[in-house]
Design goal:
There is one protein chain. This protein is mainly α. It is built from ten helices and two strands; from the N terminus they run βααααααβαααα. Strands 1-2 form a two-stranded antiparallel ribbon.
Length: about 220
């Protein structure tokens, strides 16, 4: 949904960050447009573990294997598009202010410009669509926007995902039209909680380091 600056993914991204980027990319692919049969087949091949997050991955894989492309497309339309609007409105501005094309979109566009991200020419939706923001977050992690920087990722997360995306995914979990997308909501909600906890630890560690350095330089 957005065009990134001309940087290739970095080879030095560690496995944990590759996994983070893959989760953001999966969410972006499922939420950007009706899923193709190829995407459903890919999702059907995923496997989880015994954690809540892993069980949600397994649930999504099972549902993807048992739904056809037309059913998935109708579900996507009912949830996120609709004749006048879908059951959910997947935009940051709407969730944060109740209006589309509001200040959260303007702030996102400012940060996109600073990061060298341009809106793709064939995209008609505002850039603060949940899929677009997830795609940008993946690019910050995988090196597509230059060397990965956790502090830059945290700032983008805090500004554009943390204030609203958890509520969106919780709404997706319980949406009346959701079948395939119910575990997508669970995955998104749990994953954002994991990300928020990790970024909080990063901020705590940075604060502790600053405090130690201040003490060491005290007269």
């Amino acid at each position: 949904m957005a065009e990134h600056a001309e940087h290739g993914p970095m080879d030095d991204v560690d496995d944990a960050d590759r996994l983070r980027a893959q989760v953001y990319t999966l969410l972006a692919q499922l939420l950007a447009r009706p899923p193709s049969r190829a995407l459903l087949n890919t999702v059907a091949g995923l496997s989880g573990d015994g954690t809540s997050f892993g069980r949600a991955i397994g649930d999504l894989a099972t549902r993807a294997a048992s739904i056809d492309e037309q059913q998935a497309g109708r579900e996507y339309f009912d949830l996120l598009v609709g004749v006048t609007r879908g059951e959910l409105v997947p935009f940051a501005s709407y969730y944060r202010t109740g209006f589309l094309n509001d200040r959260p979109l303007a702030r996102l566009r400012e940060d996109m410009q600073a990061l060298g991200i341009e809106r793709a020419a064939d995209v008609v939706e505002p850039e603060d669509h949940i899929a677009s923001i997830a795609e940008m977050m993946a690019a910050l992690i995988d090196g597509s926007l230059g060397p990965p920087d956790l502090h830059r990722q945290k700032r983008f997360f805090d500004r554009h995902l943390a204030p609203w995306a958890g509520r969106f995914f919780a709404d997706l979990e319980t949406a009346e039209a959701a079948n395939l997308y119910r575990p997508v909501g669970t995955i998104g909600r749990l994953f954002l909680d994991i990300e928020a906890d990790a970024f909080a630890m990063l901020a705590h560690a940075a604060g502790a380091l600053d405090e130690r350095e201040g003490t060491s330089h005290a007269p």
